[in-house]
Design a protein that fits this description.
Elements (H helix, E strand, L loop, with lengths): L1 H22 L11 E5 L2 E8 L2 H6 L11 E11 L2 E2 L8 E6 L5 E7 L7 E2 L5 E8 L2 H5 L9 H11 L9
Parallel strand pairs: 2-3
Antiparallel strand pairs: 1-2, 3-8, 4-7, 5-6, 5-8
Length: 167
């Protein structure tokens, strides 16, 4: 009898312990999560693409972006970057950005264009895509800064080691 009671109590404790681990919330947020990131004097809401799969997919299939919404593509080394618009139904602006957050150049890309848009510099660390005309409309131009601190916070919230991408 005591043995049965002890076994039932042990099973109850194990069940309680396993329920805690199953229901514990995850601190990682997915690609659809938007994070506040300041660019120049403007606060935007950016999705953070950090994995190869996220970067390859980008904004493919996205049919609408609000005025403040876009995506940042994070890389772990400086290079000349190339982007294309395959399966992307919206015209987009792309800002090529140095590791310290300085916007190096802004280019416009046409929906569905499979030709690549390349950065003029090989010192690009990340890129930001917004709807076409966004950078001009909000006055964000080469020489302005994208907040590296905001990006660091977003990467950590997504579960990434921010040091991999940012100084």
């Amino acid at each position: 009898m005591i043995r049965s009671l002890f076994l039932a109590l042990a099973l109850a404790l194990v069940a309680c312990d396993s329920q805690k681990s199953v229901s514990a919330p995850s601190v990682e947020l997915g690609i659809e999560t938007r994070f506040p990131v300041r660019m120049g004097q403007v606060l935007s809401q950016l999705r953070v693409a950090a994995t190869d799969l996220e970067k390859a997919r980008g904004l493919m299939g996205v049919t609408k972006l609000s005025d403040e919404e876009g995506m940042v593509f994070m890389y772990d080394a400086e290079s000349q970057m190339r982007f294309w618009m395959k399966d992307t139904p919206l015209d987009l602006d792309i800002a090529f950005v140095a590791r310290d957050g300085t916007v190096l150049e802004v280019r416009t890309m046409t929906a569905g264009d499979t030709d690549t848009t390349a950065s003029g510099s090989d010192q690009v660390r990340f890129a930001v895509e917004m709807r076409a005309g966004w950078f001009g409309h909000f006055g964000v131009k080469p020489g302005d800064k994208v907040s590296v601190e905001d990006l660091r916070t977003a990467l950590k919230a997504r579960g990434f080691d921010a040091k991999r991408f940012l100084p």
